[in-house]
Structure to design on (81 residues):
């Protein structure tokens, strides 16, 4: 994260940024493509019952809807440049 992204015009903007940033980080942790995830979830969210919104979290979304949209992790061996 760039240092200049730590400065916001107001507290509400900072909170919105952190929610979005944490969703993207959660996607990356679970090997989910964040762009595909957000595009799909924003459409599904309209019809999702309030008591089932947790099903749209990245790790649950991957199990139910997104197994074809995972991201392959590339691991660089230690000492390789």
């Amino acid at each position: 994260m760039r240092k200049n992204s730590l400065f916001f015009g107001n507290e509400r903007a900072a909170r919105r940024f952190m929610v979005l940033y944490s969703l993207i980080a959660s996607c990356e942790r679970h090997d989910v493509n964040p762009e595909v995830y957000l595009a799909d979830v924003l459409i599904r969210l309209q019809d999702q019952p309030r008591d089932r919104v947790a099903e749209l979290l990245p790790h649950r979304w991957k199990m139910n809807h997104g197994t074809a949209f995972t991201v392959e992790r590339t691991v660089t061996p230690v000492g390789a440049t």
User: Anything to note?
Assistant: Residues 18 and 38 are 15 Å apart (CA to CA). Residues 3-69 form one domain. The chain has a mean pLDDT of 82.
